[in-house]
Structures are given as C-alpha cells and as structure tokens.
C-alpha cells in the first residue's frame, strides 16, 4: 500500500505467516543518482529478512502536464480551498511522483541495474499494478522470482496469464486504493465493476486448467472470508484495508478515529486514476466544483504529486484535504490492534 504501509508492516505480516509486501511505486529508478536504491536498501533493512513481495506500478508513461492542465488544476484547487491558501496553490509545481516501471524499461542500463538489485534481494514475488512490463523483462524476473499482476476483469486476467505471469491478483470493485485496471481506460460504462467474489469465480472458470495462482483481493477483513476463498480454490488472498488502523500504517491516526458510518467513493479526480477512498468533505467539494474533463487536468503521477504536496503544506496550517484510500469494508477495521494481531485473527482456523 504505497504511502501507507511500512517495512514494519511487511515484516509483521510475514511474521504472522503471510507474504509481507513493500510498495516501491514512489521510488524513481530512472533517476541518475542512487537515492532510490539507497531508499530501497533502507526499506529492505527495516523490513528484515521477511520481505517477500516487491510491488511496482506499471502504467502507461504519462506526459509532463501542459501549462493549461497545470492552470486548470490550480483553478480547481483554488475553488476548493480557503482564499488564504491561494498563494500556496498558485506556487504548486508538478513532478512525477509515481514513475512507471515502463519508464525504467526504456533505459536498458537502468533496467539491468534494477533487475540485478532485485535479484540480490531475492524476493518470493515481484508484483505489478496498472499493467505489466514487456515479455523480456518478465522472463528475466522469472529467473529468480514469481511474477504477479493485478486484474479487474477476465480480459485482464487472461492477458496476464497469456504473458506468462505466475499469479493474478483479482481486485474486486470493493477493494481500497487504486483500481489496477489497465486494458479499458477509466470509463464507467466499460468497467463491469465486478465484486471480488464475482471476479474470482469468473476468472477461475475462464482460466480453468492454466497453472496461474489466483489471489482474490477486496473486502476481505475476517478469517471466515479468508477461509471461504481458500475453500473455493483461491491460492491466497490479498488484504489491505484491514491493516489501516494498525500502528504500522501511516494512516492509523485517521482510521482509529472513524465511526464506521462513513461511506467510500471511487474517484479519479484527485490522483488522475480511479481509487476507492473514504468520502470526505474535501472529496465532495472537489467533485461538486470540478468542471474539467480528466484529460484537462495533470495526468496520474503529476496530479497526485500536486495533491500530496498541497496536503502537506495545508496540514502544517491545521487544514486537512482528506483523501484516505480504503475499501468498502473499512467499517470492519479492528482498531488499536497491531499488524501481527490482525494477521493472527485473519489466519485463525486455517491449517
Ligand atoms: C491505502 C491503500 C494503498 C494501496 N496501494 C497499493 C499499491 O501500492 N500497490 C498495489 O498493488 N495495490 C495497492 N492497494 C490495493 C491492495 O493491494 C489490495 O488490492 C486491496 O487493498 C484489497 O482490498 P481491501 O482494501 O478491501 O483489503 C492499496 C490499497 C489501499 C487500501
């Protein structure tokens, strides 16, 4: 969970018998300096020897925002923040906070260096969200790791299986965070919005006979649901939201204070890609005030970077523009429990 989970969370998940994951999407491995590799070393060190899943984003490469897109963003944020913050909003510059793995692939030397680094870490799984790298990269990674990708439809799951992936994370519509959708562009009419259960069964039937690990993800917050999916033939499940209130989560403060009555919404307006988050007055206001098409605002990576920078500045002024990623089952989050305790609850009754 990029920006939310920590190496301590990954270590605790693994200690509890799961496959702890480190989100690497915020690291820019195309950079000429070694900062990202240094950060990666620190993450691995902090997580200890239990790191098993290294997670990357692999979206289509986005262009630097045009002047008009940047101006539109400033106009929109001026509409949804107090007038006193106008100088801050006007001063926002956009950099790409989520450089795609595809961008690393465009530089053969950098790709080679990254693959060598990953080989030396020796993870059990390397996983991709928002798409997958080229076949030659997948083949290289498969020499030392299992390679997984996220699918939100049978079509995407087939694409992953046909391109040699070892496992498919089946992300249902109820899941928290960004929708890993990559074949259809974000258009509500072309996304079937399959629930985790519906997607799992459809893909299980559609990929019947192929040796691909199936991992349902979305709305799984109890041992009975974990057991249900395993009994139905899933090889594992992926869980995010259940860990959001743990001390190992960067958003624990917010999720320990929710009442459970809140609703979630799917919106692409803040980051540039559809994501499920807790509905907040800020989201309501930006959805209501927005008059731009998504393509008239800075693309994913840049829009999200602008939002995060502004959020940081406004937080320092005691003002929250809340965009807290979480799934539909967030109301079942167990508060004041550690990641290890949640893991023990989720796996109780499993052999
Ligand atoms: C806060 C948050 C951040 C997430 N970040 C990532 C990410 O960086 N990479 C990824 O593959 N999935 C990410 N996801 C999606 C999860 O991997 C998973 O599909 C989802 O959490 C499962 O549904 P659940 O939230 O209902 O448990 C994120 C989810 C949340 C809640």
Show the helix and strand layout:
Elements: H1 7-15, E1 21-23, H2 35-47, E2 53-57, H3 67-80, H4 86-91, H5 101-105, H6 108-121, E3 125-129, H7 135-142, E4 146-151, H8 154-162, E5 167-171, E6 177-178, H9 196-206, E7 213-217, H10 223-231, H11 252-255, E8 264-267, E9 275-278, H12 281-289, H13 302-316, H14 339-347
Parallel strand pairs: 1-2, 2-3, 3-4, 4-5, 5-7
Antiparallel strand pairs: 6-9, 8-9
Helix pairs in contact: 1-2, 3-12
Bound molecules: flavin mononucleotide (FMN).
GO molecular function: nitronate monooxygenase activity
Pfam family, one: NMO
Cofactor: FMN
Which architecture of the domain at 7-59 and 98-246 and 333-347 per CATH? Answer: Alpha-Beta Barrel
Gross morphology is globular
Gyration radius over CA? 20 Å
Number of beta-strand segments:
9
Order of helices and strands: HEHEHHHHEHEHEEHEHHEEHHH
**How far is it from the N-terminal to the C-terminal residue, by CA?**
27 Å
Q: Biggest β-sheet: count, sense, barrel?
A: 6 strands, parallel
Structural class: alpha/beta
Low-confidence stretches: none
Tally of helical runs:
14
According to CATH, what is the class of the domain at 7-59 and 98-246 and 333-347?
Alpha Beta
Look at the structure and name the CATH superfamily of the domain at 7-59 and 98-246 and 333-347. Answer: Aldolase class I
In spatial order, strands of the major sheet run 1-2-3-4-5-7
Mean pLDDT: 95
């Amino acid at each position: 969970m990029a920006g939310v989970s920590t190496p301590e969370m990954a270590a605790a998940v693994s200690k509890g018998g799961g496959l702890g994951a480190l989100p690497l999407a915020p690291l820019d491995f195309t950079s000429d300096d070694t900062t990202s590799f240094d950060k990666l070393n620190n993450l691995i060190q902090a997580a200890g020897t239990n790191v098993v899943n290294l997670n990357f984003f692999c979206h289509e490469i986005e262009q630097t925002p045009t002047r008009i897109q940047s101006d539109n963003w400033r106009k929109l944020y001026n509409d949804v923040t107090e007038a006193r913050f106008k100088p801050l909003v006007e001063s926002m510059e956009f950099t790409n906070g989520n450089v795609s793995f595809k961008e690393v692939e465009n530089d053969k030397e950098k790709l080679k260096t990254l693959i060598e680094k990953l080989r030396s870490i020796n993870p059990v799984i390397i996983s991709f969200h928002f798409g997958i790298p080229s076949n030659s990269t997948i083949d290289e990674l498969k020499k030392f790791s299992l390679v997984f990708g996220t699918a939100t439809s049978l079509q995407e799951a087939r694409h992953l299986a046909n391109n040699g992936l070892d496992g498919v994370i089946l992300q249902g519509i109820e899941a928290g965070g960004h929708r890993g959708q990559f074949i259809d562009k974000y258009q509500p009419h072309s996304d079937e919005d399959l629930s985790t259960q519906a997607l799992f069964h459809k893909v299980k039937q559609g990929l019947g006979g192929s040796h691909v690990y199936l991992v349902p993800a979305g709305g799984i917050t109890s041992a009975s649901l974990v057991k249900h999916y395993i009994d139905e033939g899933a090889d594992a499940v992926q869980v995010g939201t259940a860990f959001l209130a743990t001390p190992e989560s960067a958003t624990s403060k917010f999720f320990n204070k929710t009442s459970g009555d809140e609703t979630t919404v799917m919106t692409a307006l803040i980051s540039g890609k559809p994501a499920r988050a807790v509905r907040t007055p800020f989201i309501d206001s930006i959805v209501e005030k927005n008059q731009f098409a998504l393509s008239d605002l800075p693309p994913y990576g840049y829009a999200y970077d602008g939002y995060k920078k502004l959020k940081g500045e406004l937080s320092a002024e005691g003002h929250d523009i809340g965009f807290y990623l979480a799934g539909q089952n967030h109301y079942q989050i167990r508060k004041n429990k550690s990641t290890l305790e949640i893991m023990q609850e989720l796996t109780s009754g499993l052999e």
